[in-house]
């Protein structure tokens, strides 16, 4: 049964108190945001949603209360604020880490590589100059999944290693995947 409360009429719940992808598309249309927009990931983080593409009634009500939103217009008014959260390095790191568990199949410990590449593009694609090269590396690599350690270290790598890789420490504690990326990229540059 949908929520009849007029303040929350901008979001309807099924009888099982969960909305899925079709309702999410309609919701995104209502607030004027593409489903693939990074602000939707920030919203999910704010709601502490556990499954990509789904919100529970409890997550929704708790999150909207914390955002002080009771209508579409108020939520639309919060979109710039949510986007600005991405500019704070500590908050961004929290959102980035959240994205791993949010996007993975709950019966898997790792992210499948297609999902990992999509999420990395969303999170780092516009801010990390080496992202296009790293994405090419992943395309041709043997890796089929990305584990949590690799995921966390990609962010650290993107923040600390120079674009020309000049400060990359080969004896550092980077995951093998990143060592292989550096080796692969250096070989390409040498050509």
UniProtKB/TrEMBL annotation:
<protein>
    <recommendedName>
        <fullName>DCN1-like protein</fullName>
    </recommendedName>
</protein>
<comment type="function">
    <text>Contributes to the neddylation of all cullins by transferring NEDD8 from N-terminally acetylated NEDD8-conjugating E2s enzyme to different cullin C-terminal domain-RBX complexes which is necessary for the activation of cullin-RING E3 ubiquitin ligases (CRLs). May play a role in DNA damage response and may participate in cell proliferation and anchorage-independent cell growth.</text>
</comment>
<dbReference type="GO" id="GO:0005634">
    <property type="term" value="C:nucleus"/>
</dbReference>
<dbReference type="GO" id="GO:0045116">
    <property type="term" value="P:protein neddylation"/>
</dbReference>
<dbReference type="GO" id="GO:0000151">
    <property type="term" value="C:ubiquitin ligase complex"/>
</dbReference>
<dbReference type="GO" id="GO:0031624">
    <property type="term" value="F:ubiquitin conjugating enzyme binding"/>
</dbReference>
<keyword id="KW-0597">Phosphoprotein</keyword>
<dbReference type="GO" id="GO:0005819">
    <property type="term" value="C:spindle"/>
</dbReference>
<dbReference type="GO" id="GO:0032182">
    <property type="term" value="F:ubiquitin-like protein binding"/>
</dbReference>
<dbReference type="GO" id="GO:0097602">
    <property type="term" value="F:cullin family protein binding"/>
</dbReference>
<keyword id="KW-0539">Nucleus</keyword>
<keyword id="KW-0963">Cytoplasm</keyword>
<keyword id="KW-0206">Cytoskeleton</keyword>
<comment type="subunit">
    <text>Part of a complex that contains DCUN1D5, CUL1 and RBX1; this interaction is bridged by CUL1. Interacts (via the DCUN1 domain) with the unneddylated cullins: interacts with CUL1, CUL2, CUL3, CUL4A, CUL4B and CUL5; these interactions promote the cullin neddylation and the identity of the cullin dictates the affinity of the interaction. Interacts (via DCUN1 domain) with UBE2M (N-terminally acetylated form) and probably with UBE2F (N-terminally acetylated form).</text>
</comment>
<feature type="domain" description="DCUN1">
    <location>
        <begin position="1"/>
        <end position="186"/>
    </location>
</feature>
<dbReference type="InterPro" id="IPR005176">
    <property type="entry name" value="PONY_dom"/>
</dbReference>
<dbReference type="InterPro" id="IPR042460">
    <property type="entry name" value="DCN1-like_PONY"/>
</dbReference>
<dbReference type="InterPro" id="IPR014764">
    <property type="entry name" value="DCN-prot"/>
</dbReference>
<dbReference type="Pfam" id="PF03556">
    <property type="entry name" value="Cullin_binding"/>
</dbReference>
């Amino acid at each position: 049964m949908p929520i009849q409360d007029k303040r929350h009429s901008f979001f309807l719940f099924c009888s099982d108190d969960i909305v899925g992808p079709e309702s999410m598309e309609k919701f995104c249309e209502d607030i004027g945001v593409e489903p693939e927009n990074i602000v939707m990931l920030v919203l999910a983080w704010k709601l502490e949603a556990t499954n990509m593409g789904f919100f529970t009634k409890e997550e929704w009500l708790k999150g909207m209360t914390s955002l002080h939103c009771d209508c579409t217009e108020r939520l639309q008014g919060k979109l710039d604020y949510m986007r600005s959260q991405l500019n704070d390095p500590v908050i961004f790191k929290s959102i980035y880490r959240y994205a791993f568990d949010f996007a993975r199949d709950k019966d898997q410990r790792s992210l499948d590589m297609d999902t990992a590449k999509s999420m990395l593009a969303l999170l780092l694609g516009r801010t990390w100059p080496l992202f296009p090269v790293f994405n090419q590396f992943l395309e041709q690599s043997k890796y089929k999944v990305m584990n949590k350690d690799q995921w966390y270290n990609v962010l650290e790598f993107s923040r600390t290693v120079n674009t020309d890789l000049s400060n990359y420490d080969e004896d550092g504690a980077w995951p093998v995947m990143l060592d292989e990326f550096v080796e692969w990229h250096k070989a390409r540059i040498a050509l």
